[in-house]
Amino acid sequence: MKLYYHGKVKDGKIEINKRFQKEVVEAFDGKPIKITVERNRVKRSQPQNAYYWSVVLPYVRDGFIDVGNVLQRNGESIMLVHELMKEKFIGNGKEIADKHGQVHKLKSTTTVLTKDEFGEYIDNIKQWSAEYLNISIPDPGQDEFMKL
Questions:
Q1: Which residues lie closer than 8 Å to 21 by C-beta, 6 or more apart?
Q2: 17 closest CA partner among 28, 30, 31, 3
Q3: Which of 53, 66, 86, 98 gives the lowest tally of CB atoms within 10 Å of its CB?
Q4: In angstroms, what CA-CA distances link 31 with 24, 35, 123?
Q5: DSSP states of 91-109 as a string?
Q6: pLDDT at 49 over 60
Q7: How many CA atoms lie within 13 A of 91 on its CB side?
């Protein structure tokens, strides 16, 4: 069983829900426990995710098509662009080595990015796309985005 509590450190003191101690004692009385404290990171938001998949990636895909790449306007091409952008701008894929010393790189992922990190990732894609694909990706809330 796992119990989760959120708190914060303020003015040198730990502030946590008053039920914390009571509930932990009730759940684990007489048993060894492990306490882990980590920063509570806010993952990317649903609006960010929707904007990324419905605006950013389709614009980038279309930019690649406009410069002569043979891609279809479908989900498969969106996934290809997604993989390319992750490798280009995130690069958080882990590396593991086998017994022969051969290094294998695992794919990067956007799922662990915070809201700020995901926003920066999108900004990097927009800047790169303007320079290398000659496209302007609309910001969330712009008329082009609202029509999609």
A1: none
A2: 3
A3: 98
A4: 10, 13, 49
A5: ----EEE-TT--EEEPPP-
A6: yes
A7: 3
Report how far residue 109's alpha carbon sits from residue 16's, in angstroms, rounded to the nearest whole number. Answer: 32
Within 8 A by CB and 6+ apart from 14, the residues are 7, 8
More confident residue, 12 or 61: 61
Tracing tokens 């930019």 back to the chain, one arrives at 63
For residues 133-138, average pLDDT: 95
How does pLDDT run across 70-97, given as a tens digit for each residue?
999 998 999 999 999 998 898 766 778 8
Nearest residue to 51 (alpha-carbon basis) of 135, 132, 115, 128: 115
The greatest distance separating any two alpha carbons of the chain, rounded to the nearest whole angstrom, comes to 68
Q: What is the pLDDT of residues 117-127, one digit of tens each?
A: 899 999 999 99
Three-state DSSP state, 16: strand
Q: How far does CA 104 lie from the centroid of its chain?
A: 22
- pTM of the predicted model as reported, rounded to 2 decimal places: 0.65
> One-letter amino acid identity for 59?
Y
Nearest to 135 by CA among 81, 72, 79, 74: 81
Report whether 127 contacts 108 (CB < 8 A): no
Structure-block tokens of residue 110: 């956007």
